[in-house]
Design brief:
about 425 residues; alpha/beta; six-stranded parallel beta sheet; 18 strands; about 30% strand; Homoserine dehydrogenase; EC 1.1.1.3; oxidoreductase
């Protein structure tokens, strides 16, 4: 049986599990692939680092460049931009197929990697870059390649989903929910990439690229995190029948002149509690797809973790190895379109707006007039009266859900509302999907 040399770059939580599976399941993988997958080496920065998985010490090396040159298949799990980018390009130019989970690199400089893979006629696979163990990229690329995807909604970051779920189920403040996520290992000591939405934005760019056959980079994604979502926002959403999730959204929009574009964005979003994504709890991930012919589809599962993500890596590896064994052209990216990325102002959705207002006659009429003047229609309006314990002055909290409107119209409406003398403050502005 033919032997294919596999170079592993990086041996963190995911890399260690990939190495373990390659060694322990060697016979099963050979039967599925038609070739022995020989782990030829593991490139690491520090040979002395203690790892949770026991692996043969002779496999470890700090010479990643040499390891890549002798490989048939390269698995890149180092993360970051460099030296990962240089090593992947080197592997591709040497004729090796590459499997990576590096979402940040793909979102920042994916086109360079795709072009090198096309030129070399080899396979670049990255199922593990989005939603961990969930098989989502291959179904988009292959199973739905004969259809037209119109919209993708995804909970693609387990850390933020855990935090928001904690706030929703326990009433915790953001800081307390984050601390619990860190205690359980769902959040890093520095959680910025997760809570500010950067991780989800990188995945949104990848999902949009595959779904709409046009290359989108991180700079094309509008990004907002969850740090400004308060316990009061969560409670108000709950009272109105919604749950707040951090969503990655990519959708096709058509303007009044018939021109098409793609809106790619990440932001906290209210979902009706009956929506399938609203039921995604804890650190789980899910991706909801709308297509012209297939209709609505949802993919759900473990979005992170060493063993689940290793499953996605091995799936890509077996696919690439089988193509090497059988011969013929490798499976490359299908970016055949050139649909422009649209700014956030072009997005069309419903909105939730929280207002603290004076409790006096005529307030609702003034607010309704501002909305009407800007072409934003109100669907739901709820009012709660509260009294300040110190001043004994009453004020009202208004919660408004609009019909679908453009981001530009909503922004103009909020700005105009702020100028009313009866408005104490705009407490929150959140987008709503699924209504």
């Amino acid at each position: 049986m033919r032997t294919l040399k596999v170079a592993l770059l990086g041996c963190g939580n995911v890399g260690a599990q990939v190495a373990r599976i390659l060694i322990e399941d060697a016979d099963a993988l050979a039967a599925r692939t038609g070739a022995r997958l020989e782990l030829s080496g593991i490139a690491v920065r520090n040979l002395g680092t203690k790892r949770d998985v026991e692996l043969p010490q002779e496999l470890f090396t700090t010479d990643a460049e040499t390891l890549v040159k002798d490989a048939d298949l390269v698995i890149e799990l180092m993360g970051g931009i460099e030296p990962a980018r240089t090593l992947i390009l080197s592997a591709l130019s040497n004729g090796a197929c590459v499997v990576t989970g590096n979402k940040a690199l793909l979102a920042q400089d994916g086109p360079t990697l795709y072009e090198e893979a096309d030129k070399a006629g080899v396979q670049l696979s990255y199922e593990a870059a989005v939603a961990g163990a969930i098989p989502i990229l291959r179904p988009i690329r292959d199973s739905l390649s004969g259809d037209r995807i119109t919209r993708v909604l995804g909970i693609v970051n387990g850390t933020t989903n855990f935090i928001l779920d904690q706030m929703d189920s326990t009433g915790a403040q953001f800081a307390d929910a984050l601390a619990e996520a860190q205690r359980l290992g769902y959040a890093e000591a520095d959680p910025t990439a997760d809570v500010e939405g950067h991780d989800a934005a990188a995945k949104a760019a990848i999902l949009a690229t595959l779904s709409f056959h046009t290359r989108f980079a991180l700079e094309n994604v509008h990004c907002e995190g969850i740090t400004k979502v308060s316990a009061a926002d969560i409670a108000a959403a709950k009272d109105a029948g919604f749950v707040i999730k951090l969503l990655a959204i990519a959708e096709k929009l058509t303007d009044a002149d018939g021109g098409e574009g793609i809106s790619v964005r990440v932001h906290p979003t209210l979902l009706p509690r009956e929506h399938p994504l609203a039921a995604v709890r804890g650190a789980f991930n899910a991706v909801f797809i709308e297509a012209e012919n297939a209709g609505e589809l949802m993919f759900y599962g473990q979005g992170a973790g060493g063993t689940p993500t290793a499953s996605a890596v091995l799936g890509d590896l077996v696919s690439a190895a089988r193509r090497l064994v059988l011969g013929g052209p490798q499976r490359t990216e299908t970016t055949t379109g050139h649909v422009p990325a649209l700014p956030i102002d072009a997005a069309v959705t419903s909105y939730y707006i929280g207002l603290d207002v004076a409790d006096q006659p005529g307030v609702l009429a003034k607010i309704a007039q501002i909305f009407a003047e800007n072409g934003v229609s109100i669907e739901i309006m709820r009012q709660t009266i509260h009294r300040d314990a110190e001043s004994n002055v009453e004020s009202a909290e208004l919660r408004i859900v609009t019909h679908r409107a453009s981001e530009a119209a909503l922004a103009a409406t909020v700005e105009a509302v702020k100028g009313l003398d009866v408005i104490n403050s705009v407490t929150s502005v959140l987008r709503v999907e699924g209504v």
